[in-house]
Amino acid sequence: MSARAAKKAVPLRIKRVYEPAAEDDGLRVLVDRLWPRGLTKAKAAIDLWLKDISPSDALRRKIHADPKKWSTFVAAYRRELEQEPARTAAATLRAHWRTGPVTLVYASRNEERNNAIVLMEWLEANNVKQAAAKSGLRSIHRS
Predict the structure, then answer these.
(1) I need a surface site. Which of 4, 13, 53, 90 has the fewest CB within 10 A?
(2) C-alpha distances out from residue 132 to 2, 19, 79, 137, 139, Å
């Protein structure tokens, strides 16, 4: 990434929904299919709930049944993100991310292995791909 692109980069973060909201969170987007237990809407401070970007119910149940299959979950979830309705939800999320900081909020106790981490990595990787494709198109048009 160039210094110019890095300067324009807008933060994308992840955070447990049970942690207090902070001013620098920007738009707080819940990326879980189920509402977090024991939290009111006010306490969660969620700005947008994108259920459709979360793993399908079937996939969510599989990983809870066998956490050892993390790599299988990651691959399956990435495939789901490329299909509807997740694709549309991802486009919505990207549009918000272009305008300011976004925090992907999740409820899982596991802070190292959860859908928000996979989603953030997927969004960042696709953002880089899109930027590279756009810069490639510009160089073709300049010639």
Answers:
(1) 4
(2) 11, 35, 21, 9, 11
**pTM score of the predicted model:** 0.84
Per-residue exposure over 125-143, b if at least 16 CB sit within 10 Å of its own CB, e if not: eebeeeeeeeeeeeeeeee
Tell me which amino acid residue 15 is.
Answer: K
Residue 4 to residues 56, 65, 138, Cα–Cα distance (Å): 37, 45, 16
Count helices and strands (H / E) in the chain.
Answer: 6, 4
pLDDT tens digits, residue range 6-34? 445 789 999 999 999 999 999 999 999 99
- Write out the two tokens for 121: 């990595």
Contact call for residues 44 and 17 (beta carbons, < 8 A): yes
Residue 138 has pLDDT above 70, yes or no: no
Cβ-proximal residues to 60 (8 Å cutoff; 6+ apart), any chain: 33, 54, 115
Long-range contacts of 68-74 (CB under 8 A, 24+ apart): 70/113, 73/118, 74/118
Q: Per residue in 33-59, pLDDT tens?
A: 999 999 999 999 999 999 999 999 999
